[in-house]
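CORE FACILITY INTAKE
Project code: CF-77B
Contact: R.S. (postdoc)
Sample description: multi-component assembly, six entities in total
Requested service: structural model of the whole complex
Turnaround: standard
Below are the sequence entries exactly as provided by the requester. Do not edit them.
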Amino acid sequence: MTDTQRQLALLVEGILGSYAEQGNINHLDGSNLPSRAAVDRVLGDLLSLVFPGFLGEDEVDELSSRYFVGERCARSLRALERIIGRAMGIQCAAGKPARPRPVPELHAEAHTHAIDLLAHIPTIREVIASDVRAALDGDPAACSAAEVITSYPGVTAIAVHRIAHHLYRRGVPLIPRMMTELVHGRTGIDIHPGARIGDSFFVDHGTGVVIGETTHIGEHVKLYQGVTLGAMSVEVSERSRATKRHPTLEDHVTVYAGATILGGDTVIGRGSTVGGNVWLTHSVPPGTTVMLDKPSLRMFTNAG
Amino acid sequence: MTDTQRQLALLVEGILGSYAEQGNINHLDGSNLPSRAAVDRVLGDLLSLVFPGFLGEDEVDELSSRYFVGERCARSLRALERIIGRAMGIQCAAGKPARPRPVPELHAEAHTHAIDLLAHIPTIREVIASDVRAALDGDPAACSAAEVITSYPGVTAIAVHRIAHHLYRRGVPLIPRMMTELVHGRTGIDIHPGARIGDSFFVDHGTGVVIGETTHIGEHVKLYQGVTLGAMSVEVSERSRATKRHPTLEDHVTVYAGATILGGDTVIGRGSTVGGNVWLTHSVPPGTTVMLDKPSLRMFTNAG
Amino acid sequence: MTDTQRQLALLVEGILGSYAEQGNINHLDGSNLPSRAAVDRVLGDLLSLVFPGFLGEDEVDELSSRYFVGERCARSLRALERIIGRAMGIQCAAGKPARPRPVPELHAEAHTHAIDLLAHIPTIREVIASDVRAALDGDPAACSAAEVITSYPGVTAIAVHRIAHHLYRRGVPLIPRMMTELVHGRTGIDIHPGARIGDSFFVDHGTGVVIGETTHIGEHVKLYQGVTLGAMSVEVSERSRATKRHPTLEDHVTVYAGATILGGDTVIGRGSTVGGNVWLTHSVPPGTTVMLDKPSLRMFTNAG
Amino acid sequence: MTDTQRQLALLVEGILGSYAEQGNINHLDGSNLPSRAAVDRVLGDLLSLVFPGFLGEDEVDELSSRYFVGERCARSLRALERIIGRAMGIQCAAGKPARPRPVPELHAEAHTHAIDLLAHIPTIREVIASDVRAALDGDPAACSAAEVITSYPGVTAIAVHRIAHHLYRRGVPLIPRMMTELVHGRTGIDIHPGARIGDSFFVDHGTGVVIGETTHIGEHVKLYQGVTLGAMSVEVSERSRATKRHPTLEDHVTVYAGATILGGDTVIGRGSTVGGNVWLTHSVPPGTTVMLDKPSLRMFTNAG
Amino acid sequence: MTDTQRQLALLVEGILGSYAEQGNINHLDGSNLPSRAAVDRVLGDLLSLVFPGFLGEDEVDELSSRYFVGERCARSLRALERIIGRAMGIQCAAGKPARPRPVPELHAEAHTHAIDLLAHIPTIREVIASDVRAALDGDPAACSAAEVITSYPGVTAIAVHRIAHHLYRRGVPLIPRMMTELVHGRTGIDIHPGARIGDSFFVDHGTGVVIGETTHIGEHVKLYQGVTLGAMSVEVSERSRATKRHPTLEDHVTVYAGATILGGDTVIGRGSTVGGNVWLTHSVPPGTTVMLDKPSLRMFTNAG
Amino acid sequence: MTDTQRQLALLVEGILGSYAEQGNINHLDGSNLPSRAAVDRVLGDLLSLVFPGFLGEDEVDELSSRYFVGERCARSLRALERIIGRAMGIQCAAGKPARPRPVPELHAEAHTHAIDLLAHIPTIREVIASDVRAALDGDPAACSAAEVITSYPGVTAIAVHRIAHHLYRRGVPLIPRMMTELVHGRTGIDIHPGARIGDSFFVDHGTGVVIGETTHIGEHVKLYQGVTLGAMSVEVSERSRATKRHPTLEDHVTVYAGATILGGDTVIGRGSTVGGNVWLTHSVPPGTTVMLDKPSLRMFTNAG
């Protein structure tokens, strides 16, 4: 055994020792977790069902659409069953140790969830179609649905949210969160799958947008980049997860870039406008415009 | 036919029905759209022409550079013709129905655009070289061009912008926007391909930067993360797309993190500095420093 | 020779001419730079050693873990030697021309760095395990380590930082920066590898977070999206790179979304809380809460 | 320009000069030939329609079979149109220069051929099913259809032949030959797509089998490795391509390893058996057994 | 519905109808067969354990060999369990319907077979090492083990045989045959996994070699291309599968190209030599040389 | 440690022990052998230079051919240097231990070989063009160069031979043999790279053809499947490798399927024809036709 071999053996034993000691961040029981790649693949298939012909390099046309849809449905069905089944098997460390559920029961429930999601693709598409129209209407630079679907991160993010939210509402664990995090990584838009969002929703630019779990958003709402719809810090610690911790935006509200709206009791009334960088922790009545007061700026000419 | 087969058939028909009803978000006429993947590939080839030897795993050296360049040019030429030709064929839904143009005419125009872009790579590289120097000068932590080109998202974003802007100015639809959106997704920096940006431009960190379509930026300008150069909300609705809706930054302006500068008539004079989080909707003369006034903070000691 | 061939030849010569003129942004001496893809692969291997079984599609279990670890260690060792060796060969343009070092010396040093990093994986994992616990404790929505490791961008970002910081402290050039930039591109969280960060660190949502090179962060610190820990502008130009230019956060500090803390002398005392959007350029004593004063807003009801 | 660069430039010009001089073996007009890879892909799709569930890693089940079939049919249809269209555009150098046919005419004909092939998959499968049964019956070692379909090269070769022969009979150029050559490369069994072969055909082991273009083979025929059904040399030069140059084997004939049967007028009568290594250039009546006479061997004991 | 859509629908229903009618050549119950690709992958892993460092692009060295071996063993173990388990689940159509065995029983048996094979890799390597020496000794053109292992199809074929034969002897169905067929397709050498072959075996060139199921081959035997060790035709029909139907070659026998040796009772005595193209259906005593008698040729000068 | 872990550890140690004992069939010093995959890639590049536009899916046209050629030349140059350099480093076990040569010397020689091969591509193409013409002339079924180049295994085999033979004559070890073995595996045609073959050479069907190292073949020679040009067995043992052990075929010789011609002194005179299955170990004068005498067959009618 050479010196380097001895060294390598030591490195290995060191890391194995660490697996024994920090057991919470290794997962050594085979492939029983839903992998990011598996979730990403099924999300890609679902998006190709939602926006057929727009995203991938598959050729879809009138001729083949029935079979394209059937083949993707069957594949998604099997993949959803697998990842949902695995996700349901993970114990929630935070809660009290749940009774482990028998595998066939988990499988049957995963199957039901998968069928249910696919059965709702048409209604999900209805809402997403309204989102695409909102993007076309909301941005004077937008020219065609093709442009909006292929190039607007806000449209991708809300489409994924609508799929993830459907699973979230039926109680599917982990998967909805993995889906929204995948699109967060690609768009910078972080919408918790628990948020309830009405139709014709549009996020422009979008980087830095955060929408919390118990947010309620009405119809025809428009957000710009960097908007936070969050919890007040005090609430985090004092309220339980079930409480509404994030604000409500009624229909036809617009929130400009960098604004922050906090609190579960905060309601932005119908048709209101919240200006850029505004920090808002209380409700405003319908039809209100809230702007930063004339900014308190200090200006001076550079010496020289 | 089993129950599950019946179920699957229902799912499929449901989704097909949805394609008939929400026709705007499906595209069932084959592969006649430029796909994201195709735009990404050609963008990768163009960047490898701009920064040869820095990005990929291709071995490029003095020996092979002529052939490397020729092979990439020929490949890019064909790919650009294809994606530009497809993009020009898409009807702009917003406008009045344009007369469909004959395919040979589209193809000839696409060819001209492709040749023109490749012919301008040298002048585009001149400007990008100034951007790289600006990054080296602007960040005390930067050590070599290699570091800046491989690790600074701002450098990637401006390089892609300079390519996309060239196409935008010649009237190529959709492709410039798809290119800038690809790099937005990777860097969090969202520069509309319409923005005019002088040489030696540097964006540091960059996440959350938004630069609008009609922005004018002079030379030696430097922006930090989270800066918005945007339109005032009122303008969006009342002005046409052609109007200048976004601000002008003259030469040697620096804008710190999180600042927002809005409005088509807003001009930040040469050599000015805009401090972090400043919200500015009016012009300032050359040589001005604008900072938030002493922040109005409320401080108290935690009870204990 | 046809017209188009002549045209293509001209394009090629134009670009080659540009390589001669803008020599700083081409790199034509073969494959002697560490490529992004190579750094990404080794980072993926290191993360799979840190979080075995969570990230990839590899099946790892008790049975195979020793060999999985050994195989990844050996592969990482070779890959680290190669990329570190290449990075050490790059001249720092900013400094005075360093004496080129002999290849065997570079190789030996790269080997030492690679062994050293792998030998510290166990201690790095200890700290990362504390970060995962902090995420679980800090977010009422988090349910299991699996959820946190697979779906929280902040956890990925800090794990990569801890690896990159180890290399940074030993003086490895370029590679640490390429690693953190890779994860910045995926999460929107930009932590300079030079920052010193105590254990149990948590970044929630994270898009737009920037943490500067000389930042010091204590234990149990929590940041939200859009937080900047930066340098004051004046400092950038007047101080050398070695000076501490970024703030210090003591243990148990929380900083809410969009807050900006600047300056090398700024110290946020133990247990303090900095509210959302706060702009802070001076120190605060332990146990302080700093919030925006009641926001100076202008509100009016929409006409009509 | 360095020496090596000059050298490389010379190499390149040398090869380009060779393209000008030996024009028959370069093809420099873009991608207008059917590539081996494209033919291989479509052949793979067709085989997956013929033997669904046996060959690939696709999961096909009762649930998804309709959509699997539809998706493969649509994909094959498009791919067949493309490769057949290209093949029909190639001038046959041997014949007199054919009038180049207009593209739409070629496309329409290619479409007709593609549809026609897919419409005959059921009847082709009927015959292939008989071949599989023949393999099961003919080899005492064979145990299941699964074994025969996955592990018997003779079954693959005859299945590909039946597809290629269908195209050959309809006059599709080049593609049938490329298909049979692909399977020849994998199995060592070289069946010209022109050969007419009755049902329940079985080739055991198969390496080295050659079956010529105008061979006629009845039902329930069985061949072993190394059998040649060829033309007599004299015939090759004196007869035209249209003449029957290869033998006829009537029903229930068996030919053992290494036998050679030559000549367009040679008829092996129903139920005959041709022994190993037999060389046969004349007809034999039904029910004949032909064997090598007691081999004329010379034997001696090794000196020792 | 357009004409072509109707046409496609008809194609699909036609093929589905064919699945109902020719049920023996479709397999529509999901992925429960071992796929060729899966068998090929595990075979590749096993060969990389047998010839580490010679075949793939993996870097294996003294440093990493333990982990390389462990990682491949673990991976092969899981893969073998899976494919053997599936193969054991296939009913042998030929036999009487076996009682379907419970899954856990199949799994346990598959596990035992997988462990057993890996445990015998060392003894299998011992024999293969003798085969490599035989190739080096037997071919005056061979220069190094590297040349023999990377470039001699006979060496690959016998190595695969030794693995497959191990499984065959333990009664594993289908997999051994799929393994030898994979290497038959690549080398043209068809060795039935049932054949018993002594050490130091060498096949030169090899195309067309066929070695039957019940062949016995002693030590230091050498075969050239086109040799058949087969069954006499009469035997096929009259004897059961269990009978010895193929010949026996004692130690130190050499058989030249194209020779055919048939029959279960045929024994080629120790040290004998069988000349090219010889057809032999009876035993010869030790030390015999058998050659074609002076070939009965007809020669004439071409008329001129 | 569980039972299975202990078991796995034992498996691993068993295999490692075997590496120590059978050292000749493992190669544990890293990646210093030319891998099959590397040789295959460079062979693919060389063939695409020989038959541009015919084989791959690259689009090559008049426009891009210069750059296509240059890029492939540069890539092949680097790859050839690497694999030839590695091959030259392997000790020939058979010979007396050669003095290990210094790496720069090996590298310089590998470079010279690589340049030399590329410089001879034009003359190699000249000969291959004659081979393609011979195939077109020799097979009445052949219609176009496209058909011959894409579908005739004999054409691929001779093209690879001509490349490999060039390297062989210059003394490059191992690589020529690996190249011809790659094409042997795909076509069943085994031509030793040492054979000297005149122009206009054609092999029809080809499976089972073997052409030995010291064979000399004139111009316009044509071989059918299963032809062996080999050494007499006695010669193998008694003569040295340098002796001519394989036959000579003068110009315009045709050899039909299955014929065997043996012996270094055997000369088949110009214009001769050797019939199928003939076994020939002596010379024949020019213009001779050699055929099997009326086959000695035994025929009988099957008992009814």
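Facility notes:
- Residues 30-188 of chain B form a domain with the serine acetyltransferase, domain 1 fold (CATH 1.10.3130.10).
- Chain B has two domains: 30-188, 208-304.
Invoice: internal transfer
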